[in-house]
């Protein structure tokens, strides 16, 4: 952790990991004798052996082949702490061979009576799939079941894993839309909702009929949530929905709601929210330019924002203004831009 090479202690770390006592399993001490050739337990100084393994073991560590059975023993231990420390440590140094040999043991932990163990096992499966992709297909039905686990922590972990997997190929997870829709309409966990809504944003272009189903619950969330992060993701997904179903239906109310909320974001004192609001407003402009014209004054004010990061988004604001220009407001916009040119500092802004 401090940059020192402790590869010399790899075998000794494994010896401490194999201890039958939890305190010794986690705690070890690097005892300097001669050329630092020993790694033994001491009650005076604490260095976590699984933590040490997580920090110094990697794919090319030769002694990792010796850890399979001791990790399996810890994973299957009736002691929640032993299995927990093994799950946490393995996530840091799992190799393709360890993933192949221990995948079935980790899957068995999905049936544990302890929510903590189930949650850690679900999260570890993501690393297993990365190192050993062949485990995904036979394991996926068990992982899918965890989306309906009675414990919200396990549910959230399963959502995280599946959403990360879906980033590479969303089409493979389209069949899970009904389960995620149920979670979206029943869960009050904002962070889990954000993950689900982002996933729906990726699925909507693949199945336009899904967009029609999502529009009402997303609109309800936009109206009810006070969390800006959730609000932004809802608006982003509504924009994707409106693009996918633009061929039919009157969705003026949903468009106006999104534009109204984006106006609130752009006027917020948080510069990050302001930038995200401009970004999303530009997306709406591409398909519904008339809907954003009423907010030209807000965008114009961004040209004179005191925060440099917002001024650097000048070109994005100009893109918005370009789309907002009409015969009625062109003189007003040109006048404002000319004033900005005269007061702007540096050739970059001009």
- The percent range for strand residues is under 5%
Q: What's the total helix number?
A: 20
Low-confidence stretches: 27-47
Structural class: mainly alpha
Please state how the strands of the largest beta sheet are arranged side by side.
Answer: 2-1-3
Let me know the largest β-sheet. Answer: 3 strands, antiparallel
List the helices and strands in order. Answer: HHEEEHHHHHHHHHHHHHHHHHH
Mean pLDDT: 83
Domain Clathrin/coatomer adaptor adaptin-like N-terminal: 50-347
Keywords: Membrane, Protein transport, Repeat, Transport
GO cellular component, one term: AP-3 adaptor complex
Pfam families: Adaptin_N
Description:
- The protein has helices at residues 10-17, 22-26, 49-56, 68-75, 80-93, 96-108, 115-131, 136-145, 152-166, 177-186, 190-203, 208-224, 228-244, 252-266, 271-287, 289-292, 296-302, 308-311, 314-324, 330-343; strands at 27-31, 38-40, 47-48.
- It contains 20 helices and 3 strands.
- Residues 27-47 have low confidence and may be disordered.
- The chain has a domain at 1-63.
- It is 65% helix and 3% strand.
- It has 350 residues and is an all-alpha fold.
- A 3-stranded antiparallel beta sheet has the order 2-1-3.
- The two termini are 48 Å apart.
- It holds the Pfam family Adaptin_N.
- Belongs to the adaptor complexes large subunit family.
- Keywords: Membrane, Protein transport, Repeat, Transport.
- It is found in: Endomembrane system.
- InterPro entries: AP3_complex_dsu, ARM-like, ARM-type_fold, Clathrin/coatomer_adapt-like_N.
